[in-house]
Amino acid sequence: MSANAIYDLMRTQRAVRRLKPDPIPDEVLQRIMQAAAWAPTGGNRQPWRIVMVRDRASKERMGELYTVHWDNFVKIYRQRWVDAPEERRQKEERTIAAGDYLAAHFGDCPVVAVVCFNPKFMAVTDAGQDRVSVVGGGSVYTAVQNLMLACRAEGIGCVLTTLLCMDEPAVRELLGIDADWYTAAHVPMGYPIAGGYGPTARMPVSDLFYSDTWGNPI
Amino acid sequence: MSANAIYDLMRTQRAVRRLKPDPIPDEVLQRIMQAAAWAPTGGNRQPWRIVMVRDRASKERMGELYTVHWDNFVKIYRQRWVDAPEERRQKEERTIAAGDYLAAHFGDCPVVAVVCFNPKFMAVTDAGQDRVSVVGGGSVYTAVQNLMLACRAEGIGCVLTTLLCMDEPAVRELLGIDADWYTAAHVPMGYPIAGGYGPTARMPVSDLFYSDTWGNPI
To answer: What is the pLDDT of residue B1?
Structure first.
């Protein structure tokens, strides 16, 4: 049954941050891009574009910007685990070390996929609510998830990052991104240096799903 | 190769709006929920919860609210195609008819998955930009896409809707959604009445992807 194949991919869709500089063959990239293109979007508008950055100078510049935000993020992230059991803290330190590696080697990744979007092609139905808006992302991250699952299927490591959105004007200028288009994610891609993919640590279904009303066990 | 199996699912992930009232077996629902739970989220915070609504009165009330917004949406949507060739207009009218069916039968769908999120567990890195924010969605719609791909794999029709976000306060009250949690999507699920899934009409990769800089052909 084909369902089992997709579940195996999803179950092992780990963030892979240590990537080899080896190029990704064009035919593999083509299949990954096609997977993203198939994703559903609101009103089928497909309000996203992805710049596949292979130019070394551009990747290195993004890496410089990324490193600043990553280093700041790590300070906050470590605070979350300061009182955690030693074993858990060590696990988080391994994640941080992998992130440090990614930041230091951003320019070495064969491809950084810079995901852009245009709000003019989106019906942002939660724009009127008194909280941060997310609905525009419903027509962007479906495609990003398809792209990442395709990477997983092809044995290519990747990780969804958004820290560079804090430096959006600099990235827009660097890549010549058109007026009205903005950045939603930056996905470094490459073959894994170590084992790469594997089982993930997620909350159980019983903590994430409710039946009929909030808090009612599924 | 397992990659082909996932590409077949993605290629045929059509929005399915005509759904049978037949219940979805618990073991199938369990697999679909597990698929969503595996999705990556920022800092692995999993800042989403999904209320699986099977209660008929709640689904019917959401259907009443949905119908108002759907009817308004259709008026705007038809304007997009008023000057399109006859064949294209007829295609869009078939989509609208399917949406009309969904709105009229919201209460008949066996499950409506109401996707909730909590901004407190999100690092919204584009909050400082002078445009609508989408980054919070990066930790929500990855899970929604997994859920929908799992539905596809299980032969269960579904469609990502967000129109009810315009009535978020009413939905929050209806389902007793906790303070600090908001709504990001509403996914009606059920076995397809007609053919259901099939090939989709999407833009080609060459229109969606650029190489190195904006507008540069991939």
So the answer is: 47
CB contacts < 8 A, A to B, total 314
Give CA–CA dist B186/A126, Å, rounded. Answer: 13
Dump pLDDT digits (tens) for A168-203.
Answer: 999 999 999 999 999 999 999 999 998 889 999 999
| Identity of the residue in A146, A149, A165 whose CB atom sits nearest the CB atom of B126 | A165
Percent composition of chain A: helix, strand, coil (DSSP 3-state, to 5): 50, 15, 35
**Phi and psi torsions of A75, nearest 5°:** -60, -45
Q: What pLDDT band is residue A3 in, cutting at 50, 70 and 90? A: confident
Among positive and negative, which fits the CA dihedral B139, B34, B65, B173?
negative
Cross-chain Cβ contact A176/B34 below 8 Å? no
Rounded to an integer, what distance in angstroms lies between the CA atom of residue B126 and that of residue A172?
13
SS3 assignment for B48-113 = EEEEEECCHHHHHHHHHHHHHHHHHHHHHHHHHCCCCCHHHHHHHHHHHHHHHHHHHCHHHCCEEE
Nearest CA in chain A to B111: A212
Do the bridges between strand B182-190 and strand B111-117 make them parallel or antiparallel, or are there none, so unpaired? antiparallel
CB atoms within 10 A of CB B97: 12
**Do the interacting molecules here have an ipTM over 0.95?**
yes
Q: How far B18 CA lies from chain A's nearest CA (Å)?
A: 17
Question: Taking CA B157 as the corner, what is the angle to CA B152 and CA B159, rounded to the nearest 5 degrees?
Answer: 100
* pLDDT confidence tier of residue A4, bands split at 50, 70 and 90: confident
Q: How far apart are CA B205 and CA B218, in angstroms?
A: 8
The span from the CA of B40 to the CA of B139, in Å, is 7
Q: Which helix (H) or strand (E) holds A116?
A: strand A111-117
Q: Kindly report the length of chain B.
A: 218
Considering only CA atoms, which of B142, B208, B194 is closest in space to residue A45?
B208
* CA distance to A21, B13, B16, B32, B163, per residue, from B197 (Å): 39, 6, 7, 17, 22
Q: How far is B2 from chain A, CA to nearest CA, in Å?
A: 6
Could you tell me which chain B residue has the CA closest to the CA of A218? Answer: B52
Is the pLDDT score of A154 beyond 90?
yes
Per the CB < 8 A criterion, the answer to whether A62 and A112 are in contact is yes
* pTM for the model: 0.97
Helix (H) or strand (E) run with residue A49 in it = strand A48-53
Residue pLDDT, tens place only, B88-104: 999 999 999 999 999 99
